[in-house]
Amino acid sequence: MVGEGILKGLAETARNFFGSYVGKDRLTTIQYPEERLPQIEATRSFPFLVFDGQDAQQGLRCVACQICEKECPPKCILIKKSADKKPDAVGKPQFYPAIFDIDISVCMSCQICVEVCPFDAIKMDVDYNLSSDDRFGGLMLHKEQLAKSNQYYNEIHPTEATAVDTFFAEERAKAEAKVKAAAEAKAAAEAKAAADAKAAAEAEKAAPAAQEQPVGGETK
Amino acid sequence: MTPSLDQIFVVAKQTILGHVPAAAQPLASAVLSVIPILVIFPLLFAITTVLERKGLGRIQNRYGPNRTGPAGFFQPVADGIKSLTKEDIVPLSADQAVHFLAPVLLAAASFLGYAVLPIGRNMVIMNMNAGVLFFFAVGSVVELAVFMAGWSSRSKYSLLGAMRAIAQMISYEVPLVLASVVVIMQAGSLSTVAIVEKQAGYTGIFPHWFVFTPWGIVGFVLFMIAATAESNRSPFDLPEGESEIIAGYYIEYSGFKFALFFLGEYLGMFATSGMAITLFLGGWSAPFSFLQWIPSYVWFFAKLLALIAGFIWIRGTLPRLRMDQLMALAWEFILPTAILNMLVAGVWRFMPAGIVRWLVCAVILAVPCALLAQGLKKKKKFQVRTYQFAE
């Protein structure tokens, strides 16, 4: 029949029109600021710096080795190494970044900085609400804005963060074991040295006596 | 029937005119009639844009605009502020005067048609005895404005769009007028007021609208198809086909001039819808005799909104036609059907009233239409294209 296709099309659009008021599953739009899609774990936006402990600046894992700065393809990272050393979260004295800036208007989210970091200090963030009305200053993130806690890292990338934490725990345990072993060895060595010294002293003590006699005898 | 409420605007106008000196009365009368039109229809345009966007959104399973104000209903205000504050760019090589005049002429011509539309009982600006003729004459000024815009912009896309628009609008002007001729034949008058009064009677509870006759329904459908093409709306929006010629004849317009084109287009749509209501849907008369207590202008605007909803529904459903399909539809199908419809209207005029007359007229219309449609369908055969050099 002539016009059958038109009528079919009209019926379909009418079904869409009324159906979209009845069934909410027809509407695929997410009403953005109020509704958000759940993020997948591999989501990434821009890098941030992980810190351990409570103090953000004290606990930064970054030791200002500048590998990420050198590797960054669009050159959006600026690091100035500190002159002095500060104790890190564990208490070990380390260099720290006096300046650590990332220009997110230049960053291309390639994650290479994360790949190359030997200290697991820089990781990818998931926050994408970063628009700013300040074109230059608002998109230049400084150390203070970049520092985010390890708990936050655990929240946004649980699998990855757990692996990193396990690795660190193992390393720490190994280091502690090493220290312990070293201490034990030292203690053993010291004990041995002490014992040797004692024995030597005793021998020395005994020796003059033995010597004295003949000497004394001779002198006598 | 509540005469006081129905005639409230007419009485108000007479009261105001009573306080005006006799010498200034014609001018005051004109101003009092014109200003409501200049306020109401652009307001309706604003409401229609937001309703259209919301409706089209729902048709495509989207929300449509829902951010500005309650449920997005302040969107036209935001759009208006935006288009007013935008830079008004005129191409360097454009014909400055014509480029400026085109949108003004378009908007003015679109407003002129409302002069003869009876939007309520005794509510017409000008009861012309050649009202329908005036309406179509003014409606064709729009084509001039469109071509002025396309030509003066000095852009290829503008010119292509304008040429398409001219071809399309002239082609559809013919069926538009021929489809309304049947009503003029039946009513025996070119006056819009007389045409509406002819349809205002009732048989039982049912009205005497022309759309309830065989030639009326066919005429109405043809008129609406032609009106869609006249107002350059989808599926006949070739003159501004975004995917082909970007925005057609108004591509070189920005800011408020662009908004004027938009306004003119919608005003033209409302005016032709209003004319369709006047000719076929009984103008301001109520659809059932027991609903006559509702004021007449309410009925007119209810019918207008219903037709606009139909336009939006069609726009959300049908894809754009190809140029040859567009022309074939106008000249090969709508034009013969409209002429046949005139013949049927003559038969209707001279046969005795009754069910037999209705059936005879329906058959005279339906059989040739079906045959014509079948024939046109058969004619369309896709051939295997052979290439001279490519193979």
State the shape of chain B: globular
Please report which band the strand proportion of chain A falls in: under 5%, 5-15%, 15-25%, 25-35%, 35-45% or over 45%.
Answer: 5-15%
What's the main sheet of chain B like? 2 strands, antiparallel
Shape of chain A: elongated
Helix content of chain B: 55-70%
> Average pLDDT of chain B, to the nearest integer?
86
Helices and strands of chain A: which structural class?
A: alpha+beta
Give the strand line-up of the largest sheet of chain A: 6-1-8
Radius of gyration of chain A using CA atoms only: 34 Å
Number of strands of chain A: 8
Backbone CA Rg of chain B: 23 Å
Pattern of helices and strands of chain B:
HHHHHHHHHEEHHHHHH
Along the chain, the helix and strand elements of chain A come as: HEHEEEEHEEHEHH
Q: End-to-end span of chain A in angstroms?
A: 148 Å
Lateral arrangement of strands in the main beta sheet of chain B? 1-2
Low-confidence region ranges of chain B:
none
What can be said about this structure in brief?
The complex is a heterodimer of chains A (220) and B (391). Chain A is α+β, with helices and mostly antiparallel strands and 220 residues long. Helices cover 46% and strands 13% of the residues of chain A.
Kindly describe this structure.
The complex is a heterodimer of chains A (220) and B (391). Chain A is α+β, with helices and mostly antiparallel strands. Helices cover 46% and strands 13% of the residues of chain A. Chain A has six helices and eight strands. In chain A, helix 5 crosses helix 6. Chain A starts with a helix and ends with a helix. A two-stranded antiparallel sheet of chain B has the order 1-2. In chain B, helix 3 packs parallel to helix 13, helix 10 runs antiparallel to helix 12 and helix 10 runs antiparallel to helix 14. The interface between A and B is medium-sized, with 17 and 16 residues.
